[in-house]
Write a structure and sequence with these properties.
With about 375 residues, the protein is mainly alpha-helical. About 60% of the residues lie in helices and about 5% in strands.
């Protein structure tokens, strides 16, 4: 039943956003990163060619829509500034737009913290999600170009978003950059951005074909992000943020125990802070709220992270310290099931808060119901 609903949701998403059918492509980078993994999972599970076609079409649309300037912008072509021919070969070299409904804040426009949420630009943590999706695409197809594009995007993101604080300060990341990466739009650093970036770069560095990737040296990025993480604290009460921490922990555990990456201390810290984050909210209050006071995609991000917990426990079980840090996590499995059950009810998916974020909600529910491809189970 869950797998059937996940398939239905992804078929609806494909048609509504122009991956299939005749609708004009409607691309949004975060949503599309999860959607790409979902299509790969459907291709593997069903054996149907059309889901791999959807995956390829989605990658092409993301790069040709979000890698190029907006229709309502006076600028044209690839946001990297490359020629049409060069841009086709290196579609991620200039980064990728978020896909917000409004154009970015102009040079002479005052900053408006509320308006900024609907204005375009580039987010570091959205780029890392697409990096992971391209990595998965390369794994499933065996085609090196997806790995090359991911590495080029990772190098671009590090170069554009990282900077050194004045007067000999530490390295930091900008949260939001302009479409062409020429100026910061929001200078504060995202709570988990360095952690997401570090684990994603390590993931790319261990992938098959990394050494042959053009511009594939991520040494400086990994060093900077490691320094940023060295004294960081990641505890959060945000469901989506907690889900992200759990996903980071799962991916790091795979790197440590399956690829030999020496990051045991970082993994231990991450497991402890993820557990503290899970203990922080009163989940019973969240689950009692009516649909109009809940945001599905944030809750479903948490559910997706929880689905990765059994994999973490399996990977760390031979390490006494790490096993102890993860031993309390099984009690959160029912929380993921309750979240999924709530949003699987058609009446709840007719609420205003679902419809206002329908694309991302559909994709995140599908990912949570069938997490095999995203979690590489």
């Amino acid at each position: 039943m869950s797998a059937d609903l996940a398939l239905t949701l992804m078929e609806e998403f494909a048609e509504a956003t122009g991956v299939s059918g005749t609708a004009k492509p409607r691309r949004y980078l975060w949503t599309d990163a999860f959607a790409l993994c979902n299509f790969l999972g459907l291709a593997r599970r069903t054996g149907k060619d059309r889901y791999m076609r959807y995956a390829r079409e989605l990658v092409d649309q993301v790069h040709h829509v979000l890698g190029r300037h907006r229709d309502d912008d006076s600028r044209r072509g690839w946001i990297s500034g490359l020629t049409e021919e060069e841009g086709e070969r290196h579609p991620t070299l200039g980064g990728l737009r978020i896909g917000k409904p409004r154009n970015e804040r102009g040079l002479d426009e005052p900053s408006d913290s509320q308006l900024e949420w609907s204005q375009d630009g580039q987010y570091f943590h959205y780029l890392t999600k697409w990096l992971h999706a391209l990595h998965r695409m390369g794994q499933e197809t065996g085609e090196r170009r997806f790995q090359h594009w991911a590495v080029e995007l990772a190098a671009t993101a590090h170069r554009a978003f990282s900077y050194t604080m004045p007067h000999g300060g530490s390295r930091r990341l900008v949260w939001k950059m302009s479409i062409d990466l020429s100026r910061p739009l929001v200078s504060s650093m995202g709570h988990h951005d360095p952690l997401d970036g570090l684990i994603t770069c390590l993931e790319l560095q261990t992938a098959a074909g990394f050494e042959s990737a053009d511009g594939g040296d991520l040494t400086a990025a990994i060093a900077d992000l490691t320094q940023m993480c060295s004294q960081a604290r990641w505890v959060t009460d945000d469901p989506l943020g907690i889900g992200g921490l759990l996903d980071d922990a799962r991916r790091l555990a795979e790197l440590v125990f399956e690829h030999g990456i020496e990051r045991h201390e970082l993994l231990y810290r991450l497991l402890i802070e993820a557990e503290l984050s899970l203990q922080t909210p009163d989940w019973s209050i969240l689950l009692r709220r009516p649909d109009v006071h809940r945001l599905a995609f944030r809750e479903l991000g948490l559910a997706i992270g929880i689905h990765g917990l059994p994999g973490i426990r399996d990977l760390v079980r031979e390490n006494r310290m790490l096993a102890a840090a993860s031993e309390g996590t099984p009690r959160y499995q029912p929380l993921a099931q309750e979240i999924e059950a709530f949003w699987s009810v058609p009446a709840h998916r007719a609420s205003r808060t679902w419809i206002d974020h329908e694309d991302i909600n559909m994709v995140m529910l599908a990912t949570s119901l069938a997490p095999e491809s995203y979690l590489q189970l």
